[in-house]
Amino acid sequence: MNRKPRLSERQALTTYLILTPLISLAIALFLPLPPEFLALLILLTISTMAVLVTALAEGRQGVSDLLKKIFQWRISFKWYLVAVLMPIGIILASGVLAFLLGWIPTVEIRVPASSQLIFNLILIILIAVLEELGWRGYALPKLLRYRSPLTSALIIGIVAGVLHIGLGLVAGRPWLPTFLVPVGFSVTWTWLFIHTQGSLAMAMLFHFAIDYAPQFVLDAPLPIAQGLWAQAIVSLAVALGLILLFGTDLQRGPVKELAAADATGR
After folding, report:
1. Which of 63, 180, 221, 243 has the greatest number of C-beta atoms within 10 Å?
2. Given this model, what pLDDT does residue 253 score?
3. What is the three-class DSSP state of 33?
4. What is the Cα–Cα distance from 65 to 43, expressed in whole angstroms?
5. Which helix (H) or strand (E) holds 217?
6. Rounded distance between C-alpha atoms, residue 197 and residue 257, angstroms
7. CA 180 from chain center: how many Å?
8. How far apart are CA 100 and CA 106, in angstroms?
């Protein structure tokens, strides 16, 4: 006998989109913990809330289907290249913009110490999985059933932006560019998600690359506020370019097949 879901799909999605950033802001503002622990709790909130609302709306099978997406890596090789090279290009462009604006004297390329590379590798893999399981694993496929790709991207971008304000408070970052960076990237992530037939793996790889690349391609004394503004400007410019090229659907074909595929637990 099947149990009746405690939440409908729409109720679960709405609950996720409202509570996730609010809980994250509360963690940043009210918990007297070291910044590292606060950041980890905020990241865990993104994925934990996704698992929780999925369990309430879809049961154990829904949670299983959600977690399986992490291990679905059968995608055309060209999209692996896009997911890696596009973030590197964005980081380089951010550095060039900072240079042109006179914020840094040069854009440098370096290879960090092996210990730092290994530590950052493990840390950023964890960050990419925890964030993307919520944003692109859970929320985006659900939103695409009811909203256009662009609207879905902006909704997730705004929610993620509010959440990142919490992360910014923990790290002492200015709130506005901290908010705008996820908004711009959300459009690019949605474009990639649609073109890879809903691949969470490619979203995680893109996330990993965008966080891992700066240690190689930028080695100039750039203040955090200016670095965030440079990345915000470039990410929004890329998003605008994708919208102009592909329209509000972020592709030249229909998106109904993608939503249907998610409904079957693909």
Report:
1. 180
2. 65
3. coil
4. 21
5. helix 214-217
6. 9
7. 12
8. 9
User: What amino acid occupies position 114?
Assistant: S
Q: What are phi and psi of 148, to 5 degrees?
A: -70, 160
C-beta of residue 79 within 8 angstroms of C-beta of residue 196: yes
Which amino acid would we find at residue 109? I
Q: Which of 85, 235, 260 is nearest to 160 (CA)?
A: 235
Alpha helices in the chain (DSSP H): 9-30, 35-68, 77-100, 114-132, 140-143, 149-171, 175-195, 200-212, 214-217, 224-246, 256-263
> Within 10 A of 257 (CB to CB), how many other CB atoms are there?
11
Q: Where are the domains of the chain?
A: 9-263
pLDDT in the model for residue 261: 46
Residues 91-128: tens digit of each pLDDT: 999 989 998 998 888 877 888 889 989 999 999 999 99
Q: What is the DSSP letter of 138?
A: I
Report the C-alpha gap between 114 and 70 in whole angstroms: 27
Instruction: Give whichever of 39-43, 88-92, 101-105, 235-239 has the largest mean pLDDT.
Output: 235-239
Residue bearing tokens 């934990």: 48
Give dist(CA 180, CA 165) in Å, integer: 10
pTM: predicted TM-score of the whole model, two decimal places:
0.91
Structure tokens of 60?
Answer: 């154990």
